[in-house]
Design a protein that fits this description.
With 180 residues, the protein is mainly α. It contains seven helices and two strands. 78% of the residues lie in helices and 3% in strands. A hairpin with a 4-residue loop joins strand 1 and strand 2.
Length: 180
């Protein structure tokens, strides 16, 4: 039991680190809001499709928040923690309900649906956060195109890379251990 718990913590931390690095690797500034678009959502979706939802939520929230803190976007950190955790939760719940254990076509459809729903949460979440909590008002709408682009890239990366990773016996065994 203790070994399994340690394994889950380590795997969650690994995904949080991967999300942080993917978020910081390529940052495309969004001048209208002072934020940035990135590749982190693709790794968040991979975590949501492969891990137990709880571990995906923790990894997504912490990894993304850490990236904001390290990159100098502390004003976004709390919002990012909540928004990215919700992204992982929505994608994981939709995929687990409609895709897990089903044929490949249903799995891919569930990944696409889960990814799109999750990225809509991201777009709306950042709009609300920037407009209301950061006080940008309607000017926050200027960040929507960048967030849409980030969402599209995230869905494509998540839906393309997850099936490739899932074909690996080692990855499948690792992920199965997090769901127990």
């Amino acid at each position: 039991m203790k070994h399994t718990s340690t394994f889950k913590i380590v795997l969650t931390a690994l995904f949080a680190a991967l999300i942080c690095v993917a978020t910081m690797l390529i940052q495309i500034p969004i001048p209208a809001t002072g934020g940035y678009a990135n590749l982190g959502d693709g790794v968040i979706l991979i975590a949501a499709f492969l891990l137990h939802p709880l571990y995906a939520v923790i990894a997504a929230g912490l990894g993304s928040m850490l990236a904001d803190l390290l990159a100098g976007y502390a004003s976004y950190a709390l919002g990012t923690l909540v928004i990215k955790a919700l992204v992982a939760l929505i994608a994981a719940l939709i995929y687990n309900r409609f895709g897990r254990g089903r044929k490949t076509g249903a799995q891919i459809a569930a990944m696409i649906a889960g990814g799109i729903a999750a990225e809509l949460i991201m777009i709306l979440g950042y709009f609300f956060y920037e407009a209301v909590l950061l006080g940008i008002g309607i000017g926050a709408a200027g960040g929507i195109p960048g967030n849409v682009g980030q969402g599209v890239v995230g869905v494509v990366l998540g839906c393309v890379l997850t099936p490739i990773l899932a074909r690996s016996r080692e990855v499948t065994e690792l992920m199965d251990r997090t769901r127990k």
